[in-house]
Amino acid sequence: MTTARDCPYRLVELVPELSYGESDTDNMLIQGDNLDALKALIPTHSGKVKCIFIDPPYNTKSAFEHYDDNLEHSKWLSMMYPRLELLHQLLSEDGCIWITLDDSEAHYFKIIADEIFGRRNFVTTFIWRKVDSPNDNKVAITPDHDYVICYAKNIQQLEFKKKSDSSILVAYNEPDENSDRPYRDRLLKKNGKSSLRTDRPSMYFPIKDPDGNDVYPIHDDGREARWAKGLITVGDLIKKEELVWKKRKDKWIPYTREYAPEDPTRPWPTIWNDLDTTRQTKSHLNKLLGYESIFDTPKPEDLVARTISMTTKPDDLILDSFLGSGTTAAVAMKMNRKFIGIELGDHAVTHCQPRLKKVVDGEQGGISEDVNWTGGSGFKFYRLGEVIFNENGSLREGISFDALASHIWYGDTRQSLQQSTKSPLLGVHNGIAYYLLYNGILGDKRPDGGNVLTSKVLTILPPHPEDLENGQKVIYGERRCMGDARLKSENIIFKQIPYDVKGR
C-alpha cells in the first residue's frame, strides 16, 4: 500500500491570471493531484488546519474504468490511506475531519481511519438525508441517505458548539411583574425517579415557610419525598431571598426560579433531515454555473456550513482535498473562514474557479442569505510545480529560499515555518536555533558572500535569540570554511546543502 512517505515533495506555483479578488488573501485553490498537493502543504501548513471536509469518490461501479469488485475495493483503500495520513498531519490538535460516504466504503473506511486517527478520536457518524422525492419504484429498497463520518485529531481538545434552538424559550414565562427576564419556576421537591427520602436521606429536612411553619417534602400520596437540592444550597437560596413560595390549597409550596439562557442551545442530533438534498443542490449548481452538474451527489452548502459552524470560528483554516464543484471553499469564504481547496484536472478551472469568482462578487445562492454574504475576500490559484528532490533524493537546482527554508524547518522540527520576514535565522526549536545560508540570503551570491559558512558570515548572522553566548546552532549551507574545532567551540552543527537536506 502506498504511504505518504513515498510521495515526493513538490512546489506550488502561483497562477496570477486565474487568481481573483483581494491580493493579500491566504485562500488557496490548487489544481493537481491531491496526494502531491497535500504533501506540498506539509512544510507550510502542518498542524494549522482547523477543519477538513472531504467528499471522496464513493467507489461505485463508475469510479474506475474497468470494474472489478475486489480490485476496485483495494484500489480505493490504497488511494485513501496516504491521503488520510497527510490530512492527519495537517490538522491542528483541536481540529477535526468530516468525510461523506455511502454504504460502498463507509464501514471499510472507518477501519483505516481508526488506524490513522485512533479509535478514541472517532466522534460519531451523522446521517444526511440526500433524497426528498421517490426513487425508482421498481426496486425494493432505495437508499436515501449518506454518512458523514467525523474524527478529531485529539478528542480531548476538540470543542463542539451546540445547536442554537430558540424554541427552548417557549417553556419560559415572558418577563412580568415577577421578573424582568424570561423565567420558569420549578418545584423544589424532587419528583419521578429517585425522589423518595430513602433515596437521599440527607435531602429530607424542614424549611420554614412565610408563616414560620416547617415544610417537608411530601408526595401527594403521603410518601416522604426529598428536596431536589441539598441543605447548603437551599440555605443559600433562603439567605439570598431567591426561594419562591406559592400558596396551593392553603399550603405554601417552595419553588426555585430558573432564567432562560441568553443563547438557548441543545445537543446536535445525528440524523440530519432538515438540510438541502441532492436535487436542490444540483438545481443550485445549474443556476450558478449554467449547466447540469457532472457530480452524482454534490453536497449542499448548508451541510458543509453545519460542519464548519459546529467546530470553527471566523479566520480558522478549512481544507477540502476533493473539492469537486467548489462547495467547501465557497461556504468557507461566505462564513469568513480561510480555505485551501484542491481539485484534480480541468474541474479546478471549469467549475471551482468560476464559482469562487461569483462568490467573491456576492453570489446569493446557497447559504448567502443566511449568513448575510454580500461579497468580498478572494483566492489565489496555484498549480503543482517541480519536485523538490530528484530521483536519487538530491535537491533540485533552482529551488527558492522560501521553499527550501520551509522544507528544512519542517524536516528538523515537524512544525510549519513561522517567518514574518525573510531571514537566514529560521527560528528556534527546543533551544536550537536553525539557520539557512542559501540563494544569497545575506545579499551576495559570491562564495564568501553568504552561501558559505565563514568566520565573516558567522559574525553577521542574527544571534541565537535565547542564548547569545552558548546557544546551539544548526546551520545549513553549501559548504563551510571553518574547522571542526571552531564549530565545536561555537556550538555549531553544520549541515551541507544538498546532501544533508532530508528528502522525505
Structure description:
About 1% of the residues have low confidence. Helix 2 packs parallel to helix 3 and helix 7 runs parallel beside helix 8. With 504 residues, the chain is an alpha/beta fold. Strands 1, 2, 3, 4, 5, 6, 7, 15, 16, 17 and 18 form an eleven-stranded mixed beta sheet that branches. The protein is built from eleven helices and 24 strands. 32% of the residues are buried.
Query: Whole-number radius of gyration?
Result: 31 Å
Total DSSP E strands: 24
Largest β sheet strand count, sense and barrel closure? 11 strands, mixed
Q: Low-confidence runs (pLDDT<50, min 5 residues)?
A: 63-67
Helix content: 10-25%
For the residues shown, what is the average pLDDT? Answer: 88
Our count of helices gives: 11
Distance between the termini: 17 Å
Question: Which class best fits the helix and strand makeup?
Answer: alpha/beta
Tell me, briefly, the overall form.
globular
Strand content: 15-25%
SSE inventory with pairings:
Elements: E1 10-14, E2 20-21, E3 28-31, H1 34-45, E4 49-54, H2 69-90, E5 91-101, H3 106-117, E6 122-129, E7 145-152, E8 163-164, E9 183-187, E10 207-208, E11 214-215, H4 231-239, E12 243-248, E13 251-259, E14 265-266, E15 271-272, H5 278-289, H6 301-311, E16 317-320, H7 327-334, E17 338-343, H8 347-360, E18 378-387, H9 401-413, E19 425-429, E20 432-436, E21 452-453, H10 455-460, E22 473-477, E23 479-480, H11 484-489, E24 492-496
Parallel strand pairs: 3-17, 3-18, 4-5, 4-16, 6-15, 16-17, 20-22, 21-23, 22-24
Antiparallel strand pairs: 1-18, 2-18, 5-7, 6-7, 8-14, 9-13, 10-11, 12-13, 19-20
Helix pairs in contact: 1-2, 2-3, 6-7, 7-8
